[in-house]
Amino acid sequence: NHKTKTIMDKTGYSNLRLKLKELNADLAAEVSGHIFFNDRYYGFDDAIYATFRVIELLYLGINLDKELDKLPKVYTSSNIEIDVNENNKFLIVEEIENKLTKFKRGFPIFKDILKIDGLRINFEYGWALIRASNTNPLIMTKYEATTYATAMTYKKAVENLINEVINEINSTTN
User: Fold this and answer.
1) pTM of the full structure
2) Tell me, what's the pLDDT at 174?
3) What secondary structure does DSSP assign to the chain, as a single string?
4) What pairs with residue 76 in β-bridges?
5) Ramachandran region of residue 114, left (φ > 0), alpha (ψ -120 to 50) or beta?
6) pLDDT tens-digit profile of 83-100?
7) What confidence category does residue 6 fall into, taking pLDDT thresholds of 50, 70 and 90?
């Protein structure tokens, strides 16, 4: 029975480290596997140390299987990369946001859009992430939902929207 507060912020090693320090948080982590602790070993992203911390929990009697079973069951896709023109990648994301602010027939109903790091579209049963890569000419997408079929529904709708925007931008720049 531990009280926790989760904060979503920009992805990336340096962003995590800064947020950990800024908030004096106990832990900072991201899906890619970066894990930072703020006690006994401040600010180092070290998988071996993280492993030892898990072993310590087991030693202290924490039933890891039981704790993991408490987490919601979801399907999460891997990162999906879409090759785009380097000069257009941020414009593509901006245009997708513009289209999402207007009623879109055939697009799944969504609750809101978080713009912390790209566009995270929150649907009733999951989410989709669309972001321009900071280092490569790519749009990155990722999908999570309560079932595989639902995640694929979100994926199809988002990819159709992305392709529509890319085609529109390409037609105006050619």
Assistant:
1) 0.80
2) 62
3) -----------SHHHHHHHHHHHT-SEEE-TTS-EEESSSSTT-B-HHHHHHHHHHHHHTT--HHHHHHTSPP-EEPPPEEEE--TTTHHHHHHHHHHHHTS--TTSPPEEEEE-SSSEEEEETTEEEEEEE-SSSSEEEEEEEESSHHHHHHHHHHHHHHHHHHHHHHHHHH-
4) 144
5) beta
6) 999 999 999 999 999 999
7) confident
Residue with tokens 């912390």: 116
Question: Which amino acid, residue 38?
Answer: N
pLDDT digits (tens, 9 = 90+) for 102-144: 867 789 999 999 998 899 999 999 999 999 998 999 999 999 9
Instruction: Answer for the pair 37, 27: CB distance below 8 angstroms, yes or no.
Output: yes
